[in-house]
Specification:
Order of helices and strands: HHHHHHHHHEEHHHHHH
Structural class: mainly alpha
Radius of gyration: 37 Å
Number of helices: 15
Strand order of the largest sheet: 1-2
Helix content: 40-55%
Length: about 260
């Protein structure tokens, strides 16, 4: 008798548990509510991508804000994938077509991969740089932005394409004279050493430093200041030390002094 009572009670408890579980499943099926924590259960790799490189897709939105709606199989597969314009609008860059051409993975939006013709796209964010390179014609203006910047934010070393002027030359030495988006306009400061100038003008540097006058102790940039090709007049420093009669007979200083770089007294 006792055993029968125990079996009956166990049966009632099992039936109650089954009914409770069925009610819970029915309620969940009728009104499923997914949370971000649910996404990682099936999409661990994607959640990791967002966590590592999601940028604002990580910090300003949650999974369910982009992927709003009912999860398959209740809807067609892919229907939860939003268009970029759902959030990104109002700026020239967002008017470009084929977002996925550069932003290959929306879960890593700033891991950008470029194609071969991206200057127009670059212009929507970097208009000043694009205008600079288009205005100052050089070999750099003849290639697409992605020729040098093959990934977003990447700055190549000049020596990836160009032979150095001198042995051991580093990128910092290149940009101390050359502006990368207008490379034929050389500009430099007073700290540029003669060795940098001598990389292209070795004979002139040798003549200058071998001299026996005050010019030999000067840096090239003291006279050739600010801009490449600037040749100052001797009178800028020396005034007019000779009378008009001598100057009329020898109008060029170098007719007597040979050269500013190998000065004769």
């Amino acid at each position: 008798m006792k055993r029968m009572i125990i079996c009956t009670m166990a049966t009632i408890l099992n039936i109650g548990a089954l009914l409770f579980w069925a009610d819970a499943r029915n309620a969940e099926a009728a009104d499923p509510v997914l949370k971000n924590d649910d996404c990682v259960k099936c999409h661990a790799a994607i959640v990791h991508q967002v966590d590592q490189a999601g940028n604002k897709h990580k910090t300003e939105v949650e999974c369910m804000e982009c992927h709003a709606g009912t999860h398959p199989p209740g809807v067609e597969k892919g229907s939860l994938i939003p268009g970029c314009a759902t959030c990104h609008e109002g700026e020239p860059h967002f008017q470009l077509e084929n977002c996925l051409g550069c932003h290959r993975n929306p879960h890593e939006p700033l891991n950008i991969v470029f194609g071969d013709n991206v200057k127009a796209a670059c212009d929507t964010c970097h208009s000043a740089v694009v205008a600079e390179i288009n205005t100052h014609q050089s070999a750099h203006a003849e290639v697409d932005c992605s020729f040098c910047h093959d990934r977003h934010g990447f700055k190549p070393d000049c020596m990836d394409c160009h032979d150095p002027h001198m042995s051991g030359q580093q990128y910092a030495a290149c940009v101390s004279c050359h502006q990368v988006h207008r490379p034929l306009e050389l500009a430099y400061g007073a700290e540029i050493p003669n060795s940098d100038c001598g990389a292209c003008h070795s004979d002139i540097r040798s003549a200058l430093e071998a001299g026996a006058t005050k010019h030999a102790a000067m840096q090239c940039v003291y006279c050739h200041a600010d801009k490449h090709g600037n040749v100052p007049q001797c009178q800028s420093c020396h005034g007019t030390p000779h009378n008009e009669q001598m100057l009329s007979k020898f109008p060029s200083c170098n007719e007597c002094h040979q050269s500013a770089h190998s000065l004769l007294k």
